[in-house]
Design brief:
Elements (H helix, E strand, L loop, with lengths): L2 H7 L7 H8 L5 E3 L1 H14 L2 H13 L3 E3 L16 H10 L4 E2 L18 E2 L1 H10 L4
Parallel strand pairs: 1-2, 3-4
Helix pairs in contact: 3-4
Length: 135
């Protein structure tokens, strides 16, 4: 899950809050790295409040369905915003089913044969979960 998706799912007033709730109730897994956590914390502090950031980071790191992932390969598949590569590398290392993002920089992954790292928008992810009766 990229940072912007996390940001829009935190508030209980958000139409995407279901995603954060699925993580907290351990109905889906999330992979992360220390670098991703740092970005989450920075952006949550800026957009919400430092206390909110601390609580969200604490909740993620204490969940058994949140997997701290070690990166062994820097694939460098995204040129337009190289900072997004941390999510690609994490997904690859964690053997994730997909990356949930609304960021168009990730669209390059649709045209790369190997490694295959599927992306879904948050709305596509919601549709997938509804079809599988997870949501």
């Amino acid at each position: 899950m990229d940072t912007n998706v996390l940001l829009v799912s935190i508030s209980s007033k958000s139409k995407y809050h279901w995603l954060y709730q699925l993580i907290l109730t351990k109905r889906i897994q999330i992979a992360y790295t220390n670098e991703i956590l740092t970005e989450y914390e920075e952006q949550l502090s800026l957009h919400w409040h430092p206390e909110v950031a601390i609580n969200v980071i604490r909740s993620i790191t204490e969940l058994s369905n949140a997997i701290l992932t070690t990166i062994f390969y820097n694939l460098r598949l995204i040129d337009k915003d190289e900072d997004d590569n941390k999510f690609v590398d994490c997904a690859f290392a964690a053997n994730a089913d997909f990356i949930v993002t609304n960021d168009s920089h990730f669209n390059i992954l649709k045209h790369i044969g190997f490694p295959s790292i599927p992306i879904l928008s948050i709305d596509e992810f919601e549709d997938l979960l509804k079809k599988s009766n997870t949501l």
